[in-house]
Recover the amino acids of this structure.
C-alpha cells in the first residue's frame, strides 16, 4: 500500500514539476504575467509560502509512507487507505493542469477558461483540507516529531493551496 502512494507521488509529482518547467520555458513572455494583479509586496511572502508548503508536503507524505500502516488503517475508523490515494490524485493532477490552463486563459480571455483555472485551484485547496484531516488522524505518539512536522506542514499546505492560491491569487489576478 505504501508503494502505491510512493508511485502516485513519483509519477504525478514529477508531472506537476514538469508542467511548471514546461509551461514557463515555453511561455516566457506569459510567465511574467502569472502573478496577475497580486501586489508586489505580497509576492515574496507567497513564494516563501510555496517552499514551506512543499517542505511540509514531504513531511506528511513521508509520514504516510513510513509511519502509517496503510494496509490496516481506516481513517476515522471508516475510510480505507485508497481514499488517501484519491485525495493525493485530486491534488496532484489538477496541480499539473493549472499552469497550462492559466496560460490558455491568458491567451483566450474566455470566461470558461477562467472557470477551469479556478476549478483546479479549488479542487487542490479543498482536497488539501481532506488530506489535512487524514494527517490529523494518522498521529502516532511514539513518532512525535514526524507527526508534529506533518501537522505543521499540513497547516502550511492548506493555507497555501486554499487561501493563497484559491482565494488570494484568484481575487487579485484581474486587478491590475
Amino acid at each position: 500500500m505504501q508503494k502505491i502512494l510512493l508511485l502516485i507521488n513519483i509519477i504525478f509529482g514529477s508531472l506537476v514539476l514538469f508542467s511548471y518547467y514546461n509551461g514557463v520555458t515555453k511561455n516566457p513572455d506569459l510567465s511574467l504575467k502569472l502573478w496577475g494583479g497580486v501586489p508586489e509586496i505580497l509576492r515574496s511572502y507567497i513564494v516563501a509560502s510555496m517552499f514551506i508548503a512543499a517542505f511540509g508536503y514531504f513531511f506528511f507524505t513521508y509520514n504516510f509512507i513510513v509511519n502509517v500502516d496503510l494496509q490496516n488503517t481506516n481513517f476515522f475508523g471508516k475510510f480505507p487507505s485508497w481514499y488517501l490515494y484519491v485525495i493525493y490524485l485530486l491534488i496532484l493532477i489538477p496541480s499539473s493542469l493549472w499552469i497550462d490552463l492559466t496560460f490558455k486563459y491568458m491567451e483566450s480571455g474566455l470566461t470558461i477558461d477562467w472557470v477551469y483555472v479556478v476549478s483546479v485551484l479549488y479542487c487542490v485547496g479543498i482536497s488539501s483540507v481532506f488530506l489535512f484531516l487524514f494527517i490529523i488522524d494518522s498521529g502516532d505518539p511514539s513518532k512525535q516529531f514526524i507527526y508534529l512536522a506533518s501537522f505543521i506542514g499540513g497547516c502550511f499546505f492548506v493555507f497555501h493551496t486554499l487561501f493563497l492560491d484559491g482565494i488570494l491569487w484568484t481575487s487579485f489576478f484581474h486587478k491590475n
Observations:
- Strands lie at 74-75, 79-80.
- The CA atoms of residues 2 and 69 lie 8 Å apart.
- The longest strand covers residues 74-75.
- The chain has one domain: 2-10+41-172.
